Amino acid sequence: QKEVEQDPGPLSVPEGAIVSLNCTYSNSAFQYFMWYRQYSRKGPELLMYTYSSGNKEDGRFTAQVDKSSKYISLFIRDSQPSDSATYLCAMRVNTGNQFYFGTGTSLTVIP
Amino acid sequence: DSGVTQTPKHLITATGQRVTLRCSPRSGDLSVYWYQQSLDQGLQFLIQYYNGEERAKGNILERFSAQQFPDLHSELNLSSLELGDSALYFCASSVESISGNTIYFGEGSWLTVV
Asked: What angle do CA B66, B68, B33 make, to 5 degrees?
């Protein structure tokens, strides 16, 4: 079993839709959770960073962590064509440890 | 701009050759990570250095090696190149503290082996 599982998609939504992206994980020791956005052939860009459980909101983006279910989500409200990219989740046990990445979900927002 | 600088951006080389990819981390970051991303594949962790010392090793081939220098820049050396080594190679850096527990990626070095 992989440490981090992420549905690769592809996911296609109309402009203005609410997008839900998810990852599940197996290691209950993960404490730090991140979402990255990667445009084609570009470096992953940090979108959201959350410590432990709970919600974090930043503009149109909301990150949720449910440690009891080992499940994290990224919600994108009022999706825009510029949100079309691959979204990667990542997590880590503690400072200094390795980061574990999901394989990424490809999202297309149709105008 | 993440602050992580990678050179070269693109590289085309022949099988059997050796190349060196260079990374300058963000100012103040002590930790450097190298990742490989093949076409339509996820990020594969290769190796991590912290303040000049190797800290963790992932799926790095014996033909590949890396080091981090006293000025904290890092180099990834790829030798005896094969067609299958064609990929995007990303460097990432982290400050490694409770308040800065995430990593920032460079734009990558796109290696094509022909």
From this structure: 70
Beta bridge partners, B22, equal B7, B75
Question: At A24, is the secondary structure helix, strand, or coil?
Answer: strand
Q: Which residues pair with A87 in a beta bridge?
A: A37, A105
Return the structure tokens found at A105.
Answer: 């979900």
Q: Record the tokens describing residue B52, joined without a space.
A: 């000049």
> Which residues on chain B are in Cβ contact (under 8 Å) with A32?
101-102
- Alpha-carbon gap: B95 to the closest alpha carbon of chain A (Å): 9
Between A35-44, A51-60, B91-100, the lowest mean confidence (pLDDT) is in B91-100
Residue B114 makes CB contacts below 8 A (sequence gap 6+) with B12, B13, B14, B15, B83
Cross-chain residue pair A44–B90, CB shorter than 8 Å? yes
Q: Confirm if B63 and B80 have CB atoms less than 8 A apart.
A: yes
Tell me if B2 and A43 make a contact (CB, 8 A cut-off): yes
In tens, the pLDDT along A69-104 reads 999 999 999 999 999 999 999 999 877 678 899 999
Cα–Cα distance, B64 to B87 (Å, whole number): 14
Nearest to A46 among B96, B102, B107 (CB): B102
Count of C-beta atoms within a 10 Å radius of residue B92 = 28
pLDDT of residue B102: 84
At A96, the amino acid letter reads G
Task: Decide: B103 and B43 in contact? Cβ < 8 Å.
Answer: no
Q: Are strands B109-113 and B10-13 parallel, antiparallel or unpaired?
A: parallel
